[in-house]
Protein 1
Amino acid sequence: MFLQKLMLCLSTVCNVFYVIALNLTVRIMHFISPSLTKKHIIRMNEKTTMTQNPKFKYEDWGPTFNSFNFVKAASWHMWLSLGQEAFLEKEAPDSPVVTMDGKKTSIFQYLRGTLRRSIEFKQLVKDFSDVADFLVVYIAEAHSTDGWAFNNNYDIKHHRSLEDRLSAARILVQKEPLCPVVVDEINDVTAIKYGALPERLYVLQAGKVVYKGGVGPCGYSPLEVRSFLEKMN
């Protein structure tokens, strides 16, 4: 565990410097050539959901990499990730969550074998419901309207109470995720312990972390989870 924590701290420091450098680079590039900046940002995010979601066009999210809110949000997510306790092949933390009707429960209450969005995630639930139990944990909003906001996105502000979070999660439930949806407590305990901000996929088995996906959006890969579950099947 000590080695994993040490590597986490080192990678977090490197990533913070990367985010700051990226923001400064984008600002300079935008001043010199906005069109070149656009190509660079699109290429950088070509594997993320932002470029694949037909709801969004570049103008909705691309220019936000030129903002202080991008640095602030990314740095905050990385700071919280320093508290994570979920490491590959180690015991998974049974962190508390809240059901959609406001009752307190925990991650392990949903375990048979498996943990965390999108059409691809729905397909995973359909295809592997006989192999794994799926659970969506709705955590802090990554792109709140009063934070690192995208245009043409849901009007969700930073959650200041559990009811705020439950109200936001009800929007997700309307999309019929095909599996239980719970919300993180307002102190973000589950997001912290699992290093889940802004999004992350896990597979838990017998109380252990057997798959730990990368941090989203770049590391969020339902296809990788599909491959892993196929091997388990």
Note: The chain has nine helices and six strands.
Protein 2
Amino acid sequence: MGEADITTRRIEARVLHAGKAQGEVLVLSEPLSFWGGFDPVTGKILDKHHPEAGVSVTGKIVVMPASRGSAGTPAGVAESIRLNTGPGAIILYRRDVNIAVGAIVACELYGHCMPVLVVSDENYGRFISGQPAQIDADGAISLSE
């Protein structure tokens, strides 16, 4: 299969925090706690009960239903962005104020603006781990298939 055989699907999303990103999709099968279930220093999922335990989210376009946990989530998200170990973007199935606040804080304090988007139920299932993706500032997601 050559480059000419690659197709691109464009998905519109609701923007919780704007930004641009490009990277590999990582679909998490369950919500993730960024406060206690994630190590912002290494970018890896620490929660031993999470199906993707030990996986690094660094630079990935992370797709997950929502975050799990507490008001500590913004700190975990912002710290990982500051350390360049966080996701390149986060795409959610449900709105999540904690993740959005973490991205906003990191953008304001550190100048790194990670996109946080919400997609419809119809489009949520279109993401596949390992798939290349690009996110534009307007919230449009381009998926290579």
Note: The CA atoms of residues 10 and 93 lie 17 Å apart.
